[in-house]
Amino acid sequence: MGNPKGFMEVVRQQGGYRPTNERINDFSEVEKTLNENDRKLQASRCMDCGIPFCQWGCPVINNMPEWQDAIYKGDWKLASENLHETNNFPEFTGKVCPAPCEHACVLNIHQESVTIRENESSVAEKGFELGYIKPNPPKTRTGKKVAVIGSGPAGLACADLLNKWGHTVTVFEKDDAVGGLLRYGIPDFKLNKKLIDRRLEILIDEGMNIKTNTGVGVDITGKDLMKEFDSIVLAIGAMQPRDLPIEGRDLDGVHFAMDFLTQQNKVVGGQKFPDEERILATDKNVVVIGGGDTGSDCVGTSARQKAKSITQIEIMPKPPDERQINNPWPYWANTIRTSSSHEEGCERQWSKATKRFIGDENGKLKQIEVVDVEWVKENGKFKMIEKEKTRKIIDAELVLLSMGFVHCVHEGLADELGLDYDMRGNIKIDKNGLTSSKKVFAAGDSVSGASLVVRAIAAGRKCAENVDKFLSE
Fold first, then answer.
1. Residue 454: pLDDT above 90?
2. What Rg, from alpha-carbon coordinates, does the chain have?
3. pTM of the full predicted structure?
């Protein structure tokens, strides 16, 4: 450690956000960054404790103490090399990861964890700025060909390693650009898409093949891929949204959150949509159903589209402000999370269930009916009970369903390959990452269900190891 007393001498300091009245008028990133000297001071707060619980909490097992020390000493090359040993894309996780590492940090016992996520982002940016992150294609090729279906974080992480190890990798993406939910799910105000394009240039220069606008199972069959490639990796995500099949679901004005977010991301990217296809919150009372990150993204996007009002409702109870006795450090803190989007203007309501959507004579959404609920434990399981005389009407011309995803999309490729699914509808794999179809592997949300970007990267890296071993046998 460069400064063993750093955690005692330096106060935790975050970069913070751009002023609200400024940022809600554009889709530029909301987060600010510290200057280099302050960043080094923040890195000096790492205690280099005997047991790095931060590493235990990180899905990709980043070597936090080592690269915090490198930052403090100004050795950005070492910090970048160390970080890339475990994480293919620190510039992504440095922006959008909820930082389970910080929850597990020893200093978080006093709610003063090291600013690991922001430090990570700084390392990635310095690595690009100083030319340390550059193409490094393999010197030889193995002659083995791998098809990776899906270009989200799991698919790209898997493809990146396999390509670096000398296999010839082709990534197939159904959309018009690479990135999966990084590209079309996460708003630009959280992740500027130029970061994806910057990394993509390096991957292509290293020899990775990319085919966009290619839906495997639609434009090309899985059977054809089985003939052409030595191995196939499915990283198709968990894109089947959870629906709310109640009265009025078919009214004009009720949309899935991802349709709303994807369209806006494409508009920011320069695409145009006919007026009749645009999903806009402008001058409307917006209700976001679902309290997770995707719901928060809908709130921020609605604010930028100048919604009349924004309400976010969640069926679960309001989380506590501080850890409870049954949720001790170093586990993830199940406490209330307030995002930059929430700070931009939003009424949040908990323990609310939506009963019906109410429309006018023209089939357009006008209101929703909700009811208060409570959760009681019966026979070891929680049961939801509606409270009597608590039904009320909320004005809403736009409802965004953000209740998560149930599993991967079965129709098309997955069903064509005859894959087995688990009880939740996810793709079933064995201990070696193989599906029920010969030489077909799967990774990421398509296996685990919807989760974090950093977990997807970890899953992609593990899958790459399994595929490499399979091809070497």
1. yes
2. 23
3. 0.96
